[in-house]
């Protein structure tokens, strides 16, 4: 019997449900405009970029630490992304997290739908696409997102099925939070700032686990799992079981991120671009699909506290590097994505300022004091 093509226009049909139908092609609502298609079968295989692979165990060696800091500096300047090995997270934690994520997405639809929400600020949210109410084109992706720090505040709201979800995902989330703290110290040091710069804001910041499922897609050349975008927060730590992450390099070309055993991908977010006053750039990335395999990824997204206004560090503003960004918060970003299609513009672009003569370190210090006075930390 010939495979059937889905023609429904339901507002919330999961990508997994569509994949399991044995469709001959993707529904029309998933087909991207021609210029935005990955066109996988119409181009040479996307080159796999040799991302810097940084051995974090070398940070403990005083003679090698400067070398690691320099590696991070170059990676942040050139690409905004790197991979880390010997990161301190037990392999059993990463394996368990991927296993229980797969178990969750294999649950009956009605058990997942009880967690569904269109509120981007909901502490636990099951959904499809990106923001399926606003997305003009749907994305071949299902997800469960949940707040994760402090974990004692949020874990009771997490999925109760599978029964091991809270334990297994919780172990990984706690380990990822510890790793984020170490990575932030290294990135800040690479900028010439104190490793404990904004330490309180980092420790009291938010962590959101975005657990993603990209089912096998019948026409991966016409659709995407996630569109090109940057993450708003400080750093995103990505665990994945299949290759499928692509980044845009400094030449505007898409590069496939290789899958390295036991490594984690670290992406710079918009907050670090702002904090660095543009010295570092947040990485634009997307998720492509394939017709044979389901891909799972777990993104641990870290940000300052939801209402913390982030501005360039005064130490990084001078005559050669004038103040280039307005203040913005994670809460502002959530309102932006609630009301806007991600393809129509990035939130960080709304923060960019035109260079102004005389916008020096003194101006940045004044802005810093103003932000401290009215932010909730």
TrEMBL record:
This is Protein DOWNY MILDEW RESISTANCE 6. GO terms for cellular component: cytoplasm; nucleus. Its main location: cytoplasm. GO terms for molecular function: 2-oxoglutarate-dependent dioxygenase activity; metal ion binding. The keyword Metal-binding applies. Involved in the regulation of shoot development and salicylic acid (SA) homeostasis. Keywords: Cytoplasm, Iron, Metal-binding, Nucleus, Oxidoreductase. Residues 205-304 form the Fe2OG dioxygenase domain. One of its GO terms (biological process) is response to molecule of fungal origin. It is found in: Cytoplasm; Nucleus. It comes from the Eukaryota. Belongs to the iron/ascorbate-dependent oxidoreductase family.
